[in-house]
Amino acid sequence: MAERVATEYVNATLKLTEADMQALFALSDSLELRHQVFVLDTGSHEWVLEDDSAGESLRLSFERENGIYVCALSCRVVKPRLTNFLRKLVSTFRGDAVVNRIYTGFTMVYHYRSGKVVRIAECKGGEIRTVFEQRNSIGLMEEQFKLCDVEREIGIAWQSVNELLDLRNRAVAEAEIAEIDARLKRHSQLLFALEA
Length: 196
Description:
Layout: E1 4-16, H1 18-30, E2 34-39, E3 45-51, E4 56-65, E5 68-77, H2 80-92, E6 96-103, E7 106-113, E8 116-124, E9 127-133, H3 137-146, H4 149-170, H5 174-195
Antiparallel strand pairs: 1-5, 1-6, 2-3, 3-4, 4-5, 6-7, 7-8, 8-9
């Protein structure tokens, strides 16, 4: 199994409330990361995380905008604790990010939207191969249900069948009845296909 060399967060964006900030502190405590918080005059926060065992640190800036703390993050981490923390940070607080997980010889690119992975691509030797892509299945199903074209066609076909049956009941000549029967057969096949 390939060993990860580093993890890069490219243009990660998080929006946290005051309560989320408290949960964020608890998350760093649970992962045994030392942290220091600096509150600036504007109400914004500078947050320094340190993994003492690995000697790696990370600085996060949370700008206060209308009672919400916004963090725009681009960084590179190597050690597992900070890597794990950032992954949980993005998923727990529904962040948007592009994450490059760098291995020897290739890179896996994860695209997060609202904390969920929506696309994974492998970059190797200048080639990009999509490994996973989330599809909006619910949205596609809703669109299908909203489409009433098939129901409209079925209604038109049934109306034609009723008219042909009325014509058949009034028809006297065998040739005319045979022609109506052939048309009814085509309509019944069409109805079968549409209702399937």
